[in-house]
């Protein structure tokens, strides 16, 4: 029986779902406040905290995105003019060097407190 190692095991890092959520004084989610600071599609960003991802097939042991630079592909917190309750609203594409495959494209969803614009 084949097994998928992408989601098996437990990371030594605390999952983002267990981290405390910080809300602004107006009661808005952090990504809404961050969006007002000019984060749009095409903006270059850098990840500011440790975020392990396990869905990148070339990185079998997982990949930590901390310090990686990428480009915002889209903000999925709105659809057809309606605000959605997405907890990780920014789709960000990273080009990560890999010893065998050259550069590997990795797309991850992040919230506005996990990265900074460049």
UniProtKB/TrEMBL annotation:
GO BP term, pick one: photosynthesis
GO molecular function list: oxidoreductase activity
Keywords: Oxidoreductase
Ranges of residues in domain Ferredoxin thioredoxin reductase alpha chain: 42-114
Purpose: Variable subunit of the ferredoxin-thioredoxin reductase (FTR), which catalyzes the two-electron reduction of thioredoxins by the electrons provided by reduced ferredoxin.
Subunit structure: Heterodimer of subunit A (variable subunit) and subunit B (catalytic subunit). Heterodimeric FTR forms a complex with ferredoxin and thioredoxin.
Recorded family membership: Belongs to the ferredoxin thioredoxin reductase alpha subunit family.
Protein name: Ferredoxin thioredoxin reductase alpha chain domain-containing protein
Organism listed in the record: Apatococcus lobatus
């Amino acid at each position: 029986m084949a097994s998928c190692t992408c989601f098996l095991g437990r990371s030594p890092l605390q999952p983002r779902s267990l981290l405390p959520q910080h809300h602004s004084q107006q009661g808005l989610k952090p990504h809404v406040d961050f969006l007002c600071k000019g984060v749009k599609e095409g903006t270059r960003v850098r990840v500011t905290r440790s975020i392990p991802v396990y869905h990148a097939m070339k990185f079998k042991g997982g990949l930590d995105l901390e310090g990686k630079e990428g480009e915002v592909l889209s903000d999925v917190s709105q659809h057809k003019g309606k605000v959605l309750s997405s907890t990780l609203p920014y789709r960000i594409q990273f080009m990560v060097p890999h010893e065998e495959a050259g550069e590997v494209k990795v797309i991850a969803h992040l919230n506005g407190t996990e990265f900074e614009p460049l």
